[in-house]
Amino acid sequence: MTGNSNLNLVAARGGWIGVDLDGTLAEYGTWRGVGHIGAPVPAMLARVKRWRAAGVEVRIFTARAGDAECLPAIQEWCQTHVGEVLPVTATKDYQMVELWDDRAVQVLANTGQRADGQEDML
Ligand SMILES: [Mg+2]
């Protein structure tokens, strides 16, 4: 996806971009409890803000979504750093057009081949 025209297309079609929290949008080292979320990762935060300014829906895509106790801290973190509360989910749907995640391994569509060129561990 390059340029705002594509982003506008995503927005117009009702698409959304999923952004992982720990290790992607926020710094993560070790689990410190539901109330702790790390400092923003500047490059990722800037990207999310650009997308939002272009009208693209961004959802925080995190395993924390499965724990209702985690939601207040995520919402507060978003309000403080993103400037708005973003939806929180751990569920894909047909409108999800991209997923940004520090643990994801991208594969080239329909090939089973890694996009990063790394060797598999096993
Ligand atoms: Mg992560």
UniProtKB/TrEMBL annotation:
Q: Which InterPro entries match?
A: HAD-like_sf, HAD_sf
Instruction: Write the protein's name.
Output: Polynucleotide kinase
